[in-house]
Amino acid sequence: MERGGLLAGVGVFVVRRRRIEAALSLPERLRVKAAVLGTTVATRIAGEAVSLTFPVPVAGHPGALDAAPDPRGRSLAAVVADAVRYEWGFESSPGQYMVGAMRLSFLGTPTSTRDSADYPEFPVIAHGFFDWFDISYVWLCAWLRLPSRLPDHDRGTSVHLPRADGSLAGMGGTLRMTLIGGAPAATRSQVASAFTLAARGARLPVEHQLLMDARNALWAGDYRRAVIDAGTASEVALASAITVGLQGKRVASEFIEQAIKAANGVVGLLELYISLGYKLPVSKNKVGDRLANKRNDAAHAGREPTDVETRGALEVAQQIVDAARPLPAP
After folding, report:
1. What tens-digit pLDDT sequence spans the chain (330 residues)?
2. Cα–Cα distance between 161 and 170 in angstroms, integer?
């Protein structure tokens, strides 16, 4: 409950913040390992400190998930629990779960109405949630080598909290889910790292975002776009690694820029990269045949590659990016 008091010796009335227990609907379901269930992660959404707790298995209902209790063992308010009853998630395969909602806890500042729906933190978290989730989700997809396929967010309900009169207040948005059979699931460390990076606003490095774009295009059946993005991701990764290497040798920036431009494409950049003493787990011929040629045909001749050709190009691009600009470990 809200409480206040006089600050000793000053005469200023201080309003104490109140702990709010709410539910958070996710725009996309998170695929996590069983060990993640019940885990609480402290993070920030739009600058506001929050705690997010993954749901827990339901006793007597194999594969079903429900809201986790708070540290004192208390359940969510019934009006909130009912609003997201079928969103918490389910077991998608042995040891893996699709999570669609989480328990949200934050400190709210009471207003004159004494209604939690009027607390200033509520809209900040609800509206800032989408950018935060987008960053978290893309990092997880990058580590798991999955397409993100994040659509434009609408404004349905994402945050559900109980009001003083027992009714429900909601703000934000929810969307559809995508199931990918046989895909890996996120670990505790991956989830915690993704949430931390999102709190910092740290987005995926450009070369890895381009790889993600390529995966999304492959998933959507746009093979031409997928191959072009894969080639661009490789070029960006190689150029970045070359720049760092030459800067370490104190080479002038103008010379580095001209050398990269003169390299002319992924194969030329590959040759320059190797000349600096770096190694790649893929041969020059394979890069040329499976990636560079397919990318040039798609970009300059408008040729649509096949599914097999596109997957081959993405595989080579992934090897190049992983070697030249590896993704930070969770």
Report:
1. 344 444 444 555 556 889 999 999 999 899 999 999 999 999 999 999 999 999 999 989 889 999 999 988 999 999 898 888 889 999 988 999 999 999 999 999 988 887 888 889 999 999 999 999 999 999 999 999 999 874 444 445 567 677 776 766 666 543 444 444 567 899 999 999 999 999 999 999 999 999 999 999 999 899 999 999 999 999 999 999 999 999 999 999 999 999 999 998 899 999 999 999 999 889 999 999 999 999 999 999 999 999 999 999 999 999 999 999 999 988
2. 7
- The backbone torsions φ and ψ at residue 137, rounded to the nearest 5 degrees and listed phi first, read -65, -40
Structure tokens, 16: 């104490």
Give me the architecture of the 206-324 domain, per CATH: Up-down Bundle (1.20)
Of 83, 98, 96, 88, residue with least CA distance to 66:
88
Residue 93 corresponds to which amino acid? S
Closest among 15, 18, 3 to 108, alpha carbons compared: 18
Neighbouring C-alpha atoms within 13 Å toward the C-beta of 162: 18
Could you give the residue range(s) of every CATH 1.20.120 domain in the chain?
206-324
pTM: 0.83
